Amino acid sequence: MTAENSKNHKENSGIDASAIIASTNVSQVTQGFTAEQKRYMANLLVDLNLHVALGDGQNNAVEDIGPETFWGTPVEDLCKEEKAKYERHVLDIWDDISAHNHNNQMAEGINNFLFRHHGLFNVMPAQEGYMTRLRIPGCKLRADQLIGLGDIADNIAGGYAHITTRGSFQMREIPPNKVLALNAALYDIGLSCKGTGADSARNITATPTSGFDTEELIDLHQYAIELSHRILNTRDLQGIPRKFNFAFDNSGTISVVSDTNDVGYLAVKVKANNQNVEPGLYCRIIFGGITGHEDFARDTGFICHPKHTPEISEAILRVFLEHGDRTNRKKARFKYVLDNHGFDWVCEKVQEKLDAYGNGAKLIPLSKEFDEPRTAIKRQGHIGVHSQSQEGLNYIGVALRLGRMSPEQMRGAGRIAQKYGSSDLRFTVWQNFLIAGVPDVNVEAAIKEIEALGMSVDANSFAAGAVSCTGRWACKLGNAYTKEDAGSIIDHLQARFELDQPINIHLTGCSNSCAQHYIGDIGLIGAAAKDGSEGYNVLVGGGCDDDQGLARLLCGPIASRDICIFLEQVVGNYLNGREQAESFLAFTRRHDQQQLKNVLLA
Q: Where is the Nitrite/Sulfite reductase ferredoxin-like domain (predicted)?
């Protein structure tokens, strides 16, 4: 075979020997090729007729390689979702997305699962059209981008959008023949919906006040953004065993609920120690948060240099790729790799990956006892006017009604940020947003325009502390109409009580706990009432970060039609029975479960 013939053969067959070598990372060379890679290269020799020159027969080229596997799992054992990813990589389905668009056709069955990797969710029969979830790395948005999103919500989606509990954005009621227009419009403003659903590393969150928090140790949002781009531009990191959450916490005044994430990086200031670790600023690494499974992330016993967090994150994802369960979706989250192998084993595997990369990134063992205490978190810090670290500048936290924004509010908020601020907007995990860089002289005018748009800056209203998932209104998994019920609860309680500090009420429609009911002062999870109607089980006393603890069951299920009156009783009994200005959380935690029932349900 001549060189030219060989070249033509490779072009016609779609096989490029150099490509397989170039795409093989250092760790694969060090640890050996997978069965798939061995089979591919053996077949490549046959395709190029090189097996004869190497003294191998046609029938022996691929023998003794072992059973066909997908990331170490025998193909015959894969669950249906993993078989679909094995047969076709999630990044290779654009032709299908385009065809569905041109045919005005919704994705169904396994295609619905695959399309979610591109941020397209068929939520029928709960709601017509697609829901899309955006990728907003570091929860940071420019004013012109929010204005553009207002136009997209108006012209392509259903005329509204919601900020999510990952500091992202959801739009709904997108006709199937407008999917390409959606992607083009997002591209035009520098945004994407890729990697926001199914088996993806979801929106990378960072403390929303990063870069201007008066108490932060270090601005980490740049690393969150770098990690997001690293993931989206690395083929292996698309279609991981299940969804994965990263959070970057600058240890400032606002929580990003890092301990509810699979992996959290917490800025810490390390004191003098006897472990040969140079004092200074690092990130403490925590693993395994998944509150829907009643687990908070826990300290690994390791710190790292902040600049290494993106590379460490890739190494973690590669360990997850190789050891995540691909046979049972219920056991496929990172938590179960930790449960099965232990924290130390996982950290050893991560360091092996880092060593193979050869860039010097290290997991540094160090006990938490050498961390300086972090500043206190302000529970109201994401609402209202607050000073920035830059003299004379402020950020304004805007309270939304359960994260919902109209196109007029989106465009208006963007223009306010341009007119009075620095065009810098941050979304929060509390379903609201911040306008940054507002000079002292502009604060009053900005607030007036915010309120004229029907939004609030009141930190002590029930609306400021209410978080809700979509619920049955637009999610087939929802057991209750959480958005509608949350709105009724807010109106009912605000008409009867004036709070001196917030009470966070989290409503989630199912056990997936998208609204994280386990960390709310009051957590409501959808459940069928005794008569079969929609209702809620009621939990109290949850918290995160310094207040970490799972909410405890109070009672339930309470029918949705009775939930407002029921919560009026609970809040009223708390206010009447508390000690001075005792918070709801402190009140619930100084009573055992039976005492709580006696006090709150009296």
A: 127-186, 387-452
